[in-house]
Amino acid sequence: MKAAILRSGRMVVGDVPEPVPGEGQVLVQTKACGICGSDLHAAQHADRMVALTREAVESAGGATSLYSFDPGRDMVMGHEFAAEVLEVGPEAFGPPPGSTVVSMPVVADQRGIHAVGYSNDYPGGYAERMLLSAGLLLEVPNGLDAQRAALTEPMAVGVHAVNRAGIEPGTAALVIGAGPVGLAVIAALAVKGIEPIVAADFSPRRRQLATAMGAHEVVDPNEEPAIQAWRRVDGQRPLVIFEAVGVPGVIDEAMRAAPSQAQIVVVGVCMETDHLQPFMGITKELTVKFSMAYDPMEFASTLQAIAEGRVDVTPMITGTVGIEGVPQAFADLATPDTHAKIVVEP
Amino acid sequence: MKAAILRSGRMVVGDVPEPVPGEGQVLVQTKACGICGSDLHAAQHADRMVALTREAVESAGGATSLYSFDPGRDMVMGHEFAAEVLEVGPEAFGPPPGSTVVSMPVVADQRGIHAVGYSNDYPGGYAERMLLSAGLLLEVPNGLDAQRAALTEPMAVGVHAVNRAGIEPGTAALVIGAGPVGLAVIAALAVKGIEPIVAADFSPRRRQLATAMGAHEVVDPNEEPAIQAWRRVDGQRPLVIFEAVGVPGVIDEAMRAAPSQAQIVVVGVCMETDHLQPFMGITKELTVKFSMAYDPMEFASTLQAIAEGRVDVTPMITGTVGIEGVPQAFADLATPDTHAKIVVEP
Fold first, then answer.
1. Which sign does the torsion angle of CA A66, A71, A75, A81 carry?
2. CB B26 within 8 A of CB B131
3. How far, in Å, CA of B35 to CA of B33, rounded?
4. Chain B residues in contact with A62 (beta carbon < 8 A)
5. What pTM, to 2 d.p., does this model score?
6. How close A184 comes to chain B (CA, Å)?
7. Average pLDDT, integer, range A215-244
8. Within a 10 A sphere around the Cβ of B171, how many other Cβ atoms?
9. Sorting pLDDT into bands at 50, 70 and 90, what band is B322?
């Protein structure tokens, strides 16, 4: 079948073996799959990603095959997908063929759990077809289309970051970076009724999207420091700062700017060494919480929120491509002003 | 009166003006005053300390005179003290002359709040006499001697760090560094019934002290990584790691070693730029909480715990000196193997 393949650090279009469902698995037709910033990272820095992940997983005492792909072998990425069930494998109990489904991007077999989209063995959503675990499938409700259903995964990342913050109405939020991760955080904050939500991004397009997703105030950090914008519109409430950029220096800036007792939730994925001033953290008694992914409940409730229209992800979808368009889309996403989320429709 | 004075980055013994109590203040005779690691920092890096503090306080939206001393002027440090009330000033209501007291190291006047021990205007406990705010004085109960009462302040730092962690029995603790801050954390953990408490320090003397203060397992990181020691004796419970060293690299090491979902409480004061790998934090969803000082309740309850014998600080007092001995004590404390806490008795 056709797929966009990460091969030796380059995105190419080619053929990969047709997947065959094993025990507990279903074969699905990919209908829509978002391109994630982590995929851009992986395409550029696969070795470092794998090495860091291995160190993290081993130090955590874990023994998971998640993200432990071999950068020397072909890999089909894509972990933000909606799909249609084609064939239900042996011992698999789940929605029948024809159902539109989403799933957390993991699939189990007798060897363990594999990350769909970061596995050499299980193709992700940049391929025509995928294998998923029947038990993890969620039927897409309310006739929600596959494109928007595919955004369940990235939006769940925002929901989790907001839950991890433990933020409640009465506390203000400052979101640094209005790329897909920042936009997902903004949407989750808006659903929770947080006010004000201040968002900072250099890109006018992204600031526009931030407003569309629920930010009450947007700011160009070239014109006004983000923290100043918060002080201008609020400055009184306790503050949670969401770091949704993921490049070195942003945590340090947030810590330097933060008011006393502030919480900084790091949801942007930075794979480089970063620096900070511990003295700022101590003097202001900051809390830095790192946030990763989501849990199954958060994933399911995010799908529900999108399907019920409580979160409208439409503005975030700024482009669609076929499999042939994936390499160009990766190039396009390097210039953040044009796009938020490009959705692949195999 | 006689005092050990920080003058142009050097500790010298000399005379400073006799303090006269203003409104709401009392004049006290210093009976005992511990030497704190922060004082060693201040003696060596006063300019940096002041600059960082100013940035932190200004960014926090605060307008306090705390810690905003002028390194170009004389300063008498010492903020871990017990004292005897000599004279009660005008409009001051507090314990009568002859009472042994401790106080949080701040004093108020019409210009604001000043840090006793980090002020050019208010001498700290390395002087014969000090001015304190009557309203902040706590009478030392149970006939507790001044030497041990003076350890209320550093022990309260440990109590606050443990409270900030929100740690409860059922969670394990790993304390990196068994200097005075680490020992205070260990003591507070022991009072809370935390098990196991694993402590790591290169110094055999400090490991001995860690055991005396309540650590269940001590480890020399040269012989076994601290995290391994925890895995050996526990490895199952949720874990809070206390960073009580305060030099660059320790937060990074803790993050790299930490199990998933661990909490790292930074209580060691590092005034240099530090580095870390955000990816470790994200992949393992770590929380890094910076901890500073204590609140009045924590200060008072710490005094009570020492006075009632629930915390025995005796092992921590490894030396006493007069005012003349302070410069040499500063030199001695540079070699961490010999001493934990040196108490000045003016």
1. positive
2. yes
3. 7
4. 260
5. 0.95
6. 17
7. 97
8. 18
9. very high
